[in-house]
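Action item from last week, closing it out:
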Amino acid sequence: MDTKDNFKLVKLNVGGKRFITYYDTLKPSTYFQALVKNEKANCAVFITKNGDQELFIDRDGELFEDIMRYLRSFEVRSRDREYLEKLMHEAEFFKFHELTYKIQSILNNYIDEYNNVDFELVDASSRFTFLQNGSKKIDTIKQDGSTIIAGFSYAATDGKTSKFVRMTPKKK
């Protein structure tokens, strides 16, 4: 392939979302390398309309948007574990190995982070101060240097009681 092809614009339609990028941006992916070379790949088809060629790929366009963001900035945006697992699955499909390794590293840190803490269910009482916004989502709560990471309410026989899960570093 000629080096001028690196600057060739590639039009993509991934799951209904359209992207225009340089081939050079997609080049880290062996999936796209094979696609450009062979003009075929898994879940992909070239569509020509009025002399304009677009590549349709039957995958998740929202996730591919984050893959493109990574290819341009080398940053992984989402820190939600479930989303990262989906993003890693897509990165594996498209054979973006560096992104796959980066996401795996982030997911491994999730595991390490939670292996080094203890969780304790505690009753809410006057010793806790917290703010609850209009959406009834409780934000991070701090008490005596411990971070409480979740809160919920339930109805007991004596009325409404709140419970919280406290996360503290494990004692060595």
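Closing note: The longest helix spans residues 97-115.
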